[in-house]
């Protein structure tokens, strides 16, 4: 009997389960639809298992203190001390993080999961939207089932406004059902759902109402940016030559920069150094590591200058337009 093709990226454990299933399936060869459904569910389970995010590199100390305190009270403590939050004392089981692109929403979810020793299911909206009606419903069901089995666990859905706005009706309805089950079932006290959006006004009112609380996330403040810069430097200490004063100076210079922006600055500065070294040794197959000097504050200042060029061009263009008018 011909069944659904196996995903080549599937884990060995799930492939074995599917192959074992194939043997059992022969016994009900007349029921091809049931056989195919078993295989599809195993594939869905494997796909979701690959979306579990490593959180060991992020802690509450890495995020702004104000947001860290809110996350600690809302997510971490109930997951850490479930026996204290039962019955009428059952905690909220979902929050919506609202903030501009580049704010630390993903980092907050990772920090919350890490501090709670919880598994983090990182579910991009695009993954759900790429599926047909039946597959998207099965996918959503499986997410919540796996989270319940793995509790303590956190389900994080980024750009949830996109999912709720564009999702097939059946998928949206299934999400609402799962959220209602979660909030009404005291046995699932170890599962928490975090949604993230930068466009709360575009969210479906019925579905967004399932989130018990909204937390507004600001762009990283100076202290948070300084922590992030130190984290990057310490993780690559052989590649940097920066003093405490210079780190503080860079944190001041990068107002309204996200954590991704800071990482991009360091990557840009490093690439420029490698490029220059390879240009000077163009007759060789490659430059030696010893010829790559360390990243200094001037390199990062140049990277900041490069990043700000498009913004200046845009603002100059607007000024010229206003003068013409």
UniProtKB/TrEMBL annotation:
Region span, Disordered: 303-325
Residue ranges of every copy of the AAA+ ATPase domain listed in the record: 91-221
Pfam families: AAA
Gene3D superfamilies: 1.10.8.60, P-loop containing nucleotide triphosphate hydrolases
Listed Basic and acidic residues bias regions: 316-325
SMART domains (alphabetical): AAA
PANTHER family, sorted: AAA DOMAIN-CONTAINING (PTHR23074), VACUOLAR PROTEIN SORTING-ASSOCIATED PROTEIN 4A (PTHR23074:SF83)
Protein name according to UniProt: AAA+ ATPase domain-containing protein
Organism of derivation: Heterodera trifolii
Lineage: Eukaryota, Metazoa, Ecdysozoa, Nematoda, Chromadorea
């Amino acid at each position: 009997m011909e069944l659904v093709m196996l995903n080549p990226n599937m884990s060995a454990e799930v492939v074995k389960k599917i192959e074992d299933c194939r043997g059992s399936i022969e016994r009900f060869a007349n029921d091809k639809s049931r056989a195919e459904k078993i295989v599809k569910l195993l594939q869905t389970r494997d796909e979701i298992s690959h979306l579990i995010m490593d959180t060991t590199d992020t802690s509450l100390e890495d995020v702004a203190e104000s947001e860290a305190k809110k996350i600690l009270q809302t997510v971490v403590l109930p997951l850490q001390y479930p026996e204290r939050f039962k019955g009428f004392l059952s905690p909220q089981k979902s929050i919506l993080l609202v903030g501009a692109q580049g704010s630390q929403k993903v980092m907050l979810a990772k920090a919350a999961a890490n501090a709670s020793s919880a598994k983090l299911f990182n579910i991009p909206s695009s993954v759900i939207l790429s599926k047909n009606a039946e597959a998207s419903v099965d996918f959503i069901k499986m997410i919540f089932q796996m989270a319940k089995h793995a509790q303590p666990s956190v389900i994080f859905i980024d750009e949830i406004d996109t999912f709720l706005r564009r999702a097939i009706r059946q998928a949206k309805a299934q999400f609402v059902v799962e959220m209602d089950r979660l909030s009404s079932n005291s046995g699932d006290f170890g599962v928490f759902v975090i949604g993230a959006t930068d466009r709360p006004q575009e969210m479906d009112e019925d579905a967004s109402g399932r989130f018990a609380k909204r937390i507004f996330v600001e762009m990283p403040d100076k202290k948070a940016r300084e922590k992030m810069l130190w984290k990057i430097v310490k993780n690559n200490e052989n590649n940097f030559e920066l003093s405490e004063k210079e780190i503080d100076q860079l944190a001041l210079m990068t107002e309204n920069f996200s954590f991704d922006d800071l990482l991009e600055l360091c990557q840009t500065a490093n690439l420029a150094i490698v490029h220059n070294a390879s240009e000077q040794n163009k007759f060789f197959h490659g430059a030696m590591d010893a010829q790559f000097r360390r990243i200094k504050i001037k390199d990062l200042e140049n990277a900041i200058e490069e990043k700000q060029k498009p913004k200046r061009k845009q603002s100059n263009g607007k000024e010229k337009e206003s003068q013409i008018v």
